[in-house]
Specification:
2 domains, alpha/beta, three-stranded antiparallel β-sheet
Length: about 375
Amino acid sequence: MTTGGQAPPSGSSAGSFGYRDRHSGHHSWGLAAVASPVGHTEVRSSSSAAQFSHTAGLGATAATVDSAHRRQPEGALDGRSAAMAQHVTVPVVRARKGGVPLVMITAYDAPGARITSDAGADVILVGDSLGMVVLGYEDTLQVTLADMVHHTAAVARARPDALVVADLPWLTYHLSPEETVRNAAELIRAGAQAVKLEGGVARVPMVEALTRAEIPVMGHIGLTPQSVHVMGGYKVQGRHADAAAALVADGAALAGAGCFAIVLEGIPAEVARVVTESVSVPTIGIGAGPWCDGQVLVFHDLLGLEDRVLPRFVRRYGALKADAVSAIRSYADDVRARRFPSDDESYHAAGEVTAALSPPLAGPASRLA
């Protein structure tokens, strides 16, 4: 059975999770969660006899877990009122474990930050996905630390109420803990209040070094886009029991090293549930099902500014690209028909100034001559 209230799509097959190829078909999660007689949850691979089990009180019904994830803090009028009563900080995010789900939006500039903050989001992630979303690259590997500093500063200048977290781009935290701290400091100076890095157990020394330097760290496991070549594409991770168990271990290691939250990307909902119940810090999902402590989507995806692909995990709440194309087309039509600008949209000189000009202004044709 599945625990998310939704069965995996029938007839689906393994395929890319997708960024440039996110238009690929549905994916078979390849895992089923089975409640054991002793209160464990065993995640069984459909393609292997291997199993892993985790004692984390997961014998609870879906309704019980759903209620726990959506319980409101005492005195709260609604989820947003409780969350946004103050400027969101790292301790505020950490304290939301098991409470009202966290809302994180990936945004890259001051207008996006203002909109996101005004809408009441808890966290703004300045993601290295900016390479693909706004810079036109094929993947995130082309993004430099200078790119991230530039966009982080733009977001920070909007002074959002949301916590600002910035991605450490590829090869800025892989060589040594010391270099990791130096590079993260650049993002903090640009206005970030925390940094995010990808990877599990292998990143523990970097996370520990950052926390010793008083730099808050958000982890990121599962589908890690900076590892696209190792994964052979943007593919769902943790489908089989050994890989799922490794993700649980990764989550525990990152939480133990000091991460205040962990992003779970592109993993089966059942596995994300086990990871979430296994760690003491909030998990934030993207393509990881409903059991995480929060969710994240990219600003351009949820607003429909990016319409070339529609990943399975994206729900569009707007059609802003279509609106923008229509608006620009109307503007172009008005310019070509000389309907824009109108007299009210133009500045005018005093009569004596106009009279003193030579030759006299007779209309658009003479002005353009």
